[in-house]
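Title: Prediction job returns without error message
Component: structure pipeline
Severity: low
Priority: P3
Assignee: unassigned

Description:
Job completed but the reporter wants confirmation the result is attached to the right record. Sequence as submitted:
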Amino acid sequence: MAEEHTAEKIARLERENEVLKKENERLRQLLEEALRAAKRQAAPFSRQKPKGHPQKPGRKAGKQYGRRYRRPLPDTVDEVIDVPLPARCPRCGGGLEECATVSQFQTEIPEPRVERIEFRISVGRCRRCRRRVQGRHPRQTSDALGSAASQLGPRALALSTQLNKGLGLPYGKTATVLQQAFGLQVSRGGLCQALARVASKSEPTYNALVEEVRRSASVTPDETGWRVGGKLWWMWAFSTPQVTVYSIQPGRGFEQAAMVLGADFAGFLVRDGWSSYRQFIHALHQTCLAHLLRRCREMILVARTGEAEFPRTIETILQQSLQLRDRHAQGQISEHGVAVARGRLEVRMDRTLERRYRSPQNRRLANHLLRERDALFTFLSCPGLEATNWRAEQAIRPMVVTRKVWGGNRTSRGAHTQSILVSILQTCRQQLCCASSILQKLICAAQPKPLDLTVPTR
C-alpha cells in the first residue's frame, strides 16, 4: 500500500510539474512578444489594443500638476486698441458705469503678403572677349531668363526646405502651407526641383561638413533603413559635438561608412556593435554600453533556470564601469585609482568570458563581447569620451519620424538632396544658429561656395 501511495504521489507531482512547465513556457513566449512589440514600429503597425481604463488626460491636481508657466508679457507693443464698454448690460439691459481700465496682450502673426519683385537686369557684352555678361542683384536666387524667368525667392525656398527636410512635411503638404498661409502658388514638382537647386548650391558646404567630420577627434555613427525608389537603402548619420552629416547610400557596409568617414579615420569611434565599424582599424573604438545593458536586461527577463547568471554578471560589470567614470568626474577618485579599478574590471570580464555556456543566448552574447572586448572600457582611459552612441541616436531620430511620414525618396538624386539639406539643418541646430539665414546665403550666392557652419551666429 505504501509503495502504491508513493507511486501515485510521484505521478501526481510529475503531472503538476508538466503543467507548470507549459505555463512557464507560455508566459515566456508572452514576455518575448512584449519585448518585440516594444521595438516594433509605432501605429499603424501596432498590434496591441488600447487600454480599457487609461489615465485621465491633462494636468493632474495638487503636487502632480507639474511646472506652472504663463506666457510672458511682450516687451514692446506695436498697436494699442481701446475696447469701450457696451451701451447696455448684455444680461438685463441696464445702464453701465466704468470702474477701471485693464490690459490684455495678444501676440499675433502679421497678415501674410506675397512680395513680387521684378529685377530689371542689364545685359551687355565684353568689348575685349565679346562674351555675354548680365548683372546680378544680391537678392536673386538664379540667373535664369526666358521660360525660367519666374523664380521663388530665398525666404520662400528657405521655409520650404525647413518644412520638407527639417519637419518632414511631404511636398504636397509643404505646397499647401505656402498657399494657405501666404497665398503662394507652387506645385509639388516645382518644389522638388527648387529644393534640388538649393542642394546643388549647398553641396560645397556639405563637403566641408564631411571634411570636418573626418578631422574630428571623436565621431558617433549610426544607420537606419531608408527607402529609395521603393528599395531598401540606408540612412547613415555621423555626429560630432559640432556637426552632423547624413548620407543615404544603397549599402550598410564598411565601404559606405568609409565614403563619409574615410577608410583611414584615426580618431575615436563611438558606435554600436555593427561589424562594419570594426573594420576601421586605425580608429580607437568605444562600443555603446547602453545597447549591451539593454540586451542583458532583456535576456534576464526571458532566461530559464540558471541562464540569468551570465547576463546579470555582465550587467553588473558594465554598471560598475559607468559608476567609476562618474566618481572620477566628481573628483572622488584619482586617475591612478581609475586605472587600477579598470584593470580589475577587465580581469573580471575576461574570467567571465573564459567560461563555456550551454545556453545559445548566452553563447551569442559571450561571442559578441569577445569581439568587442578591446572596445568595452576605452572611455575609462580617455576622460570626456562618451560611453554610449546617444549622439547619433538623437541625430537619427528625426529621420525615423520623416520615414514614417512619407517613406523615403523616389530617386537617388532626391536621396542626395535629402542628405545635403538635412545635414545643414541639423548642424545649424547644433550650432544654435538661424538655419533660415544660412539657407538664404547659400541660395543667393552667385556661385556655390562653402560656408563655415562651425562658428555659431547667435
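Comment from assignee: result matches the submitted record. The longest strand covers residues 218-228.
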